[in-house]
Amino acid sequence: MNKNKGGTNNLSRRKFITRTATVAAGITIVPRHVLGGAGYQAPSDTLNIAGIGVGGMGAANLKNINGQNIVALSDVDWAYAKGVFNDYPDAKKYKDYRKMLEEMDKDIDAVVIATPDHTHAITAADSMKMGKHVFLQKPLTHSIYESRYLTGLAKETGVATQMGNQGHSGEGTRLFAEWIRNGEIGDPLEAHCWTNRPIWPQGLERPEEKPSVPSTLDWDLFIGPAKYRPYHPAYTPWNWRAWWDFGTGALGDMGCHIMDPIYFALELGHPIAFEGSSSQLNTESAPIAEKVTYYFPEMERLDKIKRPPLKMTWYDGGLMPERPEGLEPGRIMGDGGGGAMIVGTKGTIICSTYGRDPYIIGREDNPPQSKKVIPRVESNHEMDWVRASKESKANRVEASSNFLYSGPFNEVVVMGNLAVRLQDLKKKLEWDGENMRIKNIGANEELRIVTSDKFTVIDGDPKFNTQHMTINAKEAAQEYIKHNYRDGWKLS
Question: Can you list the residues of the chain whose pLDDT is less than 70?
Answer without folding.
Answer: 1-44
